Amino acid sequence: MNQIHVVKGNKLPIGIDSFRCLIANKYSFVDKTLLIHEFIKSSSLVSLILRPRRFGKSLNLSMLRYFFEKVPAETPSTINRRGLFSGLLIEQNHIQLFDTHFAKYPCIYLSLKGCKANSWKHMLRKLRNLISDIYSKHIYLESFLDDYEFQRFKSVLNCFPDFTESSLMFLSKILTKYHGSRCVVLIDEYDAPMEWAYNNNSENSNHEGYDFLNNAKSFFELLFSNLLKSNDSNIHQALMVGVVRVARSGFLSGFDNYCVYPMFSDRFSNHFGFREEETQTLLQYHPIPPAFNEIKQWYNSFHAGNNISLYNPWSIVNICEKKTLKSYSVETGGTKSIESLFELVNDDFKLNIASLINGNIVPRNIQKDVYYETLQSSPEESLWPLLYYAGYLTANSNGVKIPNLEVRLEWEGWFSRILTSKFPSLSPSSLLDLIINGHSETFVSKFPIVLQSCLTYFDVGGSDSGKKAEYFYHAFCLGLFVHARDKSFNVSSELPAGTGRFDVTITPPSAKDYAAILEFKVVKGGESIDVKSQEALDQIDLKSYRASIPPHVNKLMEIGIAFKGNSSHVVVRKLEKDGNDIWNVV
């Protein structure tokens, strides 16, 4: 469990998911070859491993394929496959496995990540082409087949509609017969077609025969059950990887002989994602300016089995290459189904969103399965597991929370898009422009109007709504100002500065624009909203929050905001630096 090995190469493998390419082109990489040993010793015929996007699933499946696959004869492309594993952890620790398992099994490798389509008809055509490509890699079988087998093989190879649902089962039989050994099956992004069908189902469900989601569910139920159920004589082991655990009542209902390994499982916990020691070693090979504790705050804290805390590999490799702290996981996409459901959730869920954005743990047990059929009718129950499996939440014994700053930026973006979609005429992003340009008086007058209109939708309640309201106000402001990042501004929240922790700072990339420090207070009982806003402004000075502002900034707005129900009061102090770098009120 505790062994690590990071190979130092000439460059970083951004977007590389071929194990051969990784080794041949001398990329730096984290050695995950001990997955081979853990897969071999697994007692389950079919293993389903669930991890968020960009956690190394495709690369690991490629590695397994190069280890296990038996080919009919050595060719220039297969020569020295053994050398790909030279010096790696699997060779160092389990060299005997090369005698018993290396290149011993025909492989069926199916990647469903490219099955994107706007209708079932289009997706089925892609699937037939994909399976035809798999068959073409085994064209050497044709001379070995009898007449019936040959005709069936050619039918699938030519993308005819016959036998599609049983095509992979048939391939496993003839591969086993030819090679004299059972198959290893590797399926990448098993759930991708179902997510795509769900996201596009509503656009096609009114057309006869185009119930996208149900057609996809029925097809993959047959495809997978034919291949993996009651086919032990042809399957040695199978590994499927994906993001979400699609309900057993869904398209995996055709067989029940698989074991599921989410991130919280102990088995396989070490083989997807980067542990802290692996991340530190990779950063030693490719140094970057930010301190490690900043990198940890941005990209760590995905809780996994065996008490491991993981980093997102995609983000770490990108920061090593680009040397900039920013959100890289957002660029991978895949949030359409989540964002659409945020429009349907109840007020309690909205306040939980605000609490999460504020860094709190929400007491919640994650149900095991995602039911695509009920996402629209029960969005609150369905969203929790969807968010967890997709990596937008992490879980421990106390509940769920947002794992790190990178992921929180995505939540803030969702929150902001809810605001702008509900209230386009208010243009909340224009509040940011008022700050950037130093228009303090207009900001003071406009902010309460925007707040009051938005809180009608979010239904925060009155001043007795307690801590949840405070969480919402904070998240509301972060949502308003998230657009600053599109202008290369830095938006920070709840970080230490001076002798305390500021609520929000907005800092510009150049000296021509204003920076801002915002402090929030919630009015309780009989307190005065005017007095409370001044208290917030005074706290900025008393606790020296100005220390958080970078040296290049010459103009600053300090903003104190008090909230009471759906009302607010704003006070502002504008400052500029003199020639001695002393801040003066203007």
Automatic annotation (TrEMBL):
Q: Which InterPro entries match?
A: AAA-ATPase-like_dom, PDDEXK_9
Q: Which Pfam families match?
A: AAA-ATPase_like (PF09820), PDDEXK_9 (PF08011)
List residues of the AAA-ATPase-like domain: 13-250
Task: List, alphabetically, the PANTHER family matched.
Answer: AAA-ATPASE-LIKE DOMAIN-CONTAINING PROTEIN (PTHR34825:SF1), CONSERVED PROTEIN, WITH A WEAK D-GALACTARATE DEHYDRATASE/ALTRONATE HYDROLASE DOMAIN (PTHR34825)
Entry protein name: AAA-ATPase-like domain-containing protein
